[in-house]
Structures are given as C-alpha cells and as structure tokens.
Fold this sequence. Notes:
The protein has helices at residues 9-17, 24-34, 52-61, 96-104, 124-145, 160-170, and strands at residues 42-46, 66-71, 84-88, 109-114, 146-156, 173-179, 191-198, 206-207. It is an alpha/beta fold and 209 residues long. The protein has one domain: 3-Layer(aba) Sandwich (Rossmann fold), CATH 3.40.50.150. Strands 3-2-1-4-5-7-6-8 form an 8-stranded mixed sheet, with helices on both faces. Helix 5 (124-145) links the parallel strand 4 and strand 5. Helix 5 packs parallel to helix 6 (160-170). The longest helix has 22 residues, at 124-145. The protein starts with 8 loop residues before the first helix and ends with a strand.
Amino acid sequence: MAKYDRKDHLHQRAKKEGLRSRAAYKLQEVQKSSKLLAKGYRVFDLGCWPGGWLEIAAGLVGNSGRVVGVDRAEVDPEIPFSQVTAMVGDLEDVDIAERLRASLGADRADVILSDAAPKLTGIRETDRANVERLLEAIEALLPELLAPGGSLLIKILEGPEAQVVDRRIRKSFDSAKTTKLKSTRKGSTERYLLARGYHGGQGEPTPIR
C-alpha cells in the first residue's frame, strides 16, 4: 500500500476543488473510459467513507437516480444531494442487505461500487486475511444487491487470497477486466476490477480487451 502523502498533487487538487478525497478522481477516470454510470441509475457504494465516490456518483446519476452508501464510519458532513444517502453499518451485518434495499427504494442496484480497504496492521498475513474477508463480504452481497446485467467496480489489493476471490467474482459476470488507474497513488499496488453483465455465477466471463 502506498504511503499517504498530503503533498500528493491530487490530494491538493481535491482540497482546492472542495472534494472530500482524491479518490473522486478514480471514479471520474473510470467513468471517462468506461461510461459506468448514467442518469437514472441506482447505485450502491460499499465502504463509502469519506464520501468521495458518493459525490461523483450523485452528479452522474442525477436527480432521477439514487445512490446509497454504507460504511462503519459516519460520512460527515452529509452529502448535499437529495438522491444520496450514507448509512452507518457493517457489510457483515445480518440485516445490511435489507437496510440497503430499503434505502434504495428498489430490489437491486444497476451498479455496485467499492473503494473500500481494511485498516492495515503492517502484519502481512493479517492484512491479507482482512482484505480477503472484505472482498468475500462484498461477494456474498452481490446476489442480494445487484440486478441481473448490472456492473461492479471494486478495489483489489495484492495478495494470493484477494486474487482467489477476484477470479471467483469474475465468473458471475459476462465480462471483466482489471486495471491500474492513473489516479492511483504512486507506489500503490491496488488495482480495480470492472465487471459487467452480472448473471450470478452462471457461465464464464469474457475478458474485456
């Protein structure tokens, strides 16, 4: 994981532009290249704190869309868009899917986003296990939260455990690709899995070229 640097130019740019975090530029980069979100879309953001992706997603789906985020930490201050709700909760809570759907006002979302990462301990085995657990929690929620044909954008950190979950998630989509974003911090090992055409694990993914 790259070391946090307040002198990072995107951190400084985000601060100047009034954005909550530099992570906003990651979603903008994906949107520019892949047109992931559109007006009227219903979106879940799993692990949404501090709200950088919520802000960008809100603008992309517009007033006719809906964005619901969840995180263990409260998003404060609140996102100033009526189409956005940020909930406090854990992805492993037994009622989390029900709460998310109730807030969304629909059975399933068109897109699930996740830029979440567990807090690092510095102990490689522990950190890898925590990354795997987070990815498995998101994977387990897909059948309950993502509409057929829907899309997923999720952060994947290095480690064999994460790669196993990555390969398993891919099997639930028609197409999938992993990319390193230009807006990722220098030295970071994070990648982003963009998968489209959710079918719940029936069939094999077709790689996106």
